[in-house]
């Protein structure tokens, strides 16, 4: 390939790749990959969210999936330039399968494929009515007695769930359920979202009153409707609540408030769920084909069971039920835990003249928010990124293209840079007695989030209160709770009028146990974690987050959730999987990992 531009080289490789795939030449296709290679597929080849690693796994996946996938038309994406950095050639690509249109990112080293991301954008013939395909809205012409838009919406809202059964029922109307509901609406999938709270957005409003998002606005957009340019970088929780409420309405979601799912069971023969909900006091039975638990990955409170809790005379609650500091002025609080919620709650208590002690039971990863925004996220999610042409959609795809197996390497380098930049800060925290860690392998915050969804605090000020001794620090495990305090195993007594258990959240399959049954929860297994064999993310390696946004071992059962970024990005792939099933498009799934952990 002498004398050709990078574009020509990549085009030639894509043509060869496409030809090998079209010919069913698996050996030829695999030979185009490096030995050390990663192919991450978001639903196009595998009808799964799946990374295959190394040539053998690529070959195995193709042996199972290629004939049904019928890929074609591999090209450099329109208007995108091929780039090269440190010997890695990167190109945005488009392609098709028999039933879908795809978008992806390819990285080549020495002319061979190193990483490949393939993702589904649309099902052919079922494209979303967007842009030039948007609905007319007005009905030009005249018809006798024709209904208005509002009348049609009212009729739909009235009939869905009574005269017509939903194809999809989403349990939980937080941002996860709402984002997925919006995508399903665009795809024409009849969907009901049931939410036990009184208003959309209440899952944020109900959290402790000082909470602001820890992630910046560029990372947080919902599908179709980005936040306006005057939106704050770190939105206060009630503002996010209001945005979700507005979004639910303008996106025309069938959203049942004050509706609690009581029980669900699946009929394997009819391939249908029977779901009993309490809708504002009335029992309603729904019969959806697909059931999505969007009940929150940070919502199933891990309430510890300490000896003596029942005799405590003050107030005690899990962090998810903490109302904020107002009622505790002048009192003594013990906050058990040392991650995000513990820090936010402790700081707000201190600001409101509460004598607060944080009990640290294990080490915590701390990252200063401004450092994270600058060198951690700034290249992808920031005004700087936008100026460089990295839109949120592109940033999502770039993030998705980095295989989990090697992600920790870049994250370790980044964490090292953060440690150097904030060395004085970390030294002061250490001097104050705070137990710090940077992840088992030094790979820091993002990997902790992906592996275990816990174990960190993004510092927006509470760390300085610890350094200054304003938030007192205690260490160790709880031996018992007494009438008026917390006793640690070493005999230390922490007097308390209020105890906050900032002890985190359980796996989402716990929701399946509550609503469907322990057998189904066990069949499906733990949600979240990639099998990194690090703390709270036991092996074996699975290479993708367990059970999230993809088929599970229970037919018709799906889990959706995560932070705003994940809700936005992965709702695309979950919605397409659900739409394909509704249309009867064959969806042969490749590579659901076995269930290794029950929860
Ligand atoms: C302190 C804290 C700070 C956080 N900060 C951020 C942040 O900065 N950025 C970010 O993106 N994420 C953040 N998160 C994570 C946050 O939990 C999620 O991003 C978000 O709430 C997840 O949305 P969700 O829709 O998946 O779940 P949730 O918001 O938890 O929504 C689940 C919904 O399901 C409903 N529900 C549960 N059971 C039933 C039932 N049986 N019937 C009917 N309804 C039911 C609940 O009422 C709830 O509204 C934070 C979490 C916590 C706890």
Provide structural commentary.
The protein has 599 residues and is of the alpha/beta class. The protein folds into 3 domains: 2-123, Nuclear Transport Factor 2, Chain: A (Roll), CATH 3.10.450.50; 151-299 and 506-583, FAD/NAD(P)-binding domain; 309-501, FAD/NAD(P)-binding domain (3-Layer(bba) Sandwich), CATH 3.50.50. The protein is 32% helix and 23% strand. It contains 19 helices and 25 strands. Strands 1, 2, 3, 4, 5, 6 and 7 form a 7-stranded mixed β-sheet that branches. A 5-stranded parallel β-sheet has the order 10-9-8-14-25, sandwiched between helices. It has a 5-stranded parallel β-sheet with strand order 15-24-16-17-20, covered by helices on one side. Helix 5 packs parallel to helix 19, helix 10 (369-376) packs across helix 13 (404-421) and helix 17 packs antiparallel against helix 18 (518-524). The mean pLDDT is 96. It binds flavin-adenine dinucleotide (FAD). Flavin-adenine dinucleotide is lined by residues 171-177, 194-197, 203, 207, 211, 213-215, 260-261, 294-299, 340-341, 515, 561, 563-564.
């Amino acid at each position: 390939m002498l004398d050709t531009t990078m574009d020509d080289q990549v085009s030639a490789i894509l043509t060869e790749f496409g030809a090998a795939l079209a010919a069913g030449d698996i050996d030829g296709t695999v030979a185009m990959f490096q030995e050390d290679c990663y192919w991450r597929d978001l639903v196009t080849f595998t009808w799964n969210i799946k990374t295959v690693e190394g040539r053998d796994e690529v070959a195995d996946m193709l042996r199972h999936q290629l004939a049904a996938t019928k890929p074609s038309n591999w090209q450099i994406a329109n208007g995108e330039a091929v780039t090269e950095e440190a010997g890695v050639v990167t190109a945005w690509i488009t392609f098709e399968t028999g039933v879908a249109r795809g978008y992806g990112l390819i990285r080549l080293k020495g002319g061979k494929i190193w990483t490949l991301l393939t993702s589904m954008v649309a099902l052919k013939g079922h494209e979303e009515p967007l842009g030039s395909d948007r609905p007319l809205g007005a009905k030009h012409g005249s018809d006798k007695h024709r209904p208005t838009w509002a009348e049609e919406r009212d009729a739909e809202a009235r009939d869905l769930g009574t005269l017509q059964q939903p194809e999809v029922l989403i349990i939980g109307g937080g941002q996860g359920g709402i984002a997925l509901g919006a995508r399903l609406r665009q795809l024409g999938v009849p969907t009901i979202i049931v939410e036990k709270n009184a208003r959309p957005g209440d899952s944020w409003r109900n959290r402790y009153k000082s909470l602001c998002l820890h992630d910046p606005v560029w990372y947080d957009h919902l599908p179709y409707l980005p936040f306006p340019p005057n939106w704050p970088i770190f939105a206060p929780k009630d503002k996010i609540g209001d945005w979700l409420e507005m979004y639910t309405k303008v996106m025309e979601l069938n959203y049942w408030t004050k509706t609690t799912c009581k029980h669900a069971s699946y009929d394997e023969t009819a391939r249908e769920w029977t779901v009993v909900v309490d809708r504002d006091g009335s029992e309603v039975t729904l019969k959806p084909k697909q059931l999505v638990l969007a009940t929150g990955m940070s919502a199933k409170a891990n309430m510890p069971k300490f000896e003596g809790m029942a005799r405590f005379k003050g107030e005690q609650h899990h962090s998810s039920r903490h109302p904020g500091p107002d009622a505790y002025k002048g009192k003594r609080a013990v906050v058990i835990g040392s991650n995000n919620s513990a820090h936010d709650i402790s700081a707000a208590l201190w600001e409101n003249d509460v004598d607060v002690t944080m009990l640290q039971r294990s080490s915590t990863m701390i990252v200063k928010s401004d450092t994270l925004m600058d060198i951690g996220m700034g290249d992808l999610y920031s005004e700087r990124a936008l100026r460089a042409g990295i839109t949120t959609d592109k940033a999502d795809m770039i993030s998705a293209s980095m295989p989990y197996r090697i992600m920790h390497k870049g994250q370790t380098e980044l964490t090292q840079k953060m440690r150097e930049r904030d060395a004085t800060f970390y030294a002061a925290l250490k001097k104050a007695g705070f137990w710090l860690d940077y992840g088992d392998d030094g790979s820091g915050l993002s990997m902790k989030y992906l592996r275990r969804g816990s174990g960190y605090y993004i510092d927006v000020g509470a760390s300085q209160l610890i350094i200054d001794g304003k938030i007192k620090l205690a260490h160790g495990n709880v031996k018992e709770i007494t009438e008026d305090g917390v006793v640690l195993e070493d005999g230390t007594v922490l007097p308390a009028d209020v105890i906050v258990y900032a002890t985190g959240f359980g796996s989402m399959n716990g929701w399946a146990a509550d609503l469907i049954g322990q057998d189904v929860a066990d069949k499906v297994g733990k949600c979240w974690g990639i099998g990194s064999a690090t703390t709270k993310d036991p092996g074996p390696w699975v290479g993708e987050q367990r059970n999230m946004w993809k088929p599970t071992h229970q037919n018709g059962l799906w889990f959706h959730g995560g932070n705003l970024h994940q809700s936005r990005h992965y709702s695309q792939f979950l919605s397409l999987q659900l739409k394909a099933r509704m249309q009867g498009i064959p969806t042969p799934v490749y590579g659901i990992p076995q269930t290794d952990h029950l929860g």
